[in-house]
Amino acid sequence: MDLRTDYFRAADEAAVRKVMELGGRSPAETFESVQARGIDPTVVLPHLVAALREGDSPVKDGPDRSVWPTGLQPWDPEAPGTAVDFEDPWMTGPWVVELSDETRDALAGIERRRLPQLTSQWGRTDEVKNVERIELMRLIHQLGVLARRARKDGQHLYCVLAQ
To answer: Between the CA of residue 9 and those of 53, 113, 129, what are the distances in Å?
Structure first.
């Protein structure tokens, strides 16, 4: 499955949920965003954060929590023991997760002079090794700009994932 992953900044979870409840438009169309097709916030992005922190392995500080859909996840132990509804929003998406402020701040620290090194280091990650280097460098730069603006405005970073 090839997920569309768009990163965006917003004031808070309530603002994101309001957009999701209205339907029709993705929060990536409503808020300032960066398209990052296939850059999963829990698996792929932590490798970039590790490179920023000059660590050897990905840091497990991906999304803190799910913002959308709301309600009990079908696989939660507290969920009723009924058959899984494959039309349930938890199964179909879109899904929105909030990134930790630590991740936002790490991305906000991206410096232009480090772009070639970060591109090379992150580009060795299995999930992005087939991405053109110029595209990867552009994405790193765009994520840094988005994160700096979010931090400056006291906002948080989110990722919307859709099929």
So the answer is: 22, 24, 27
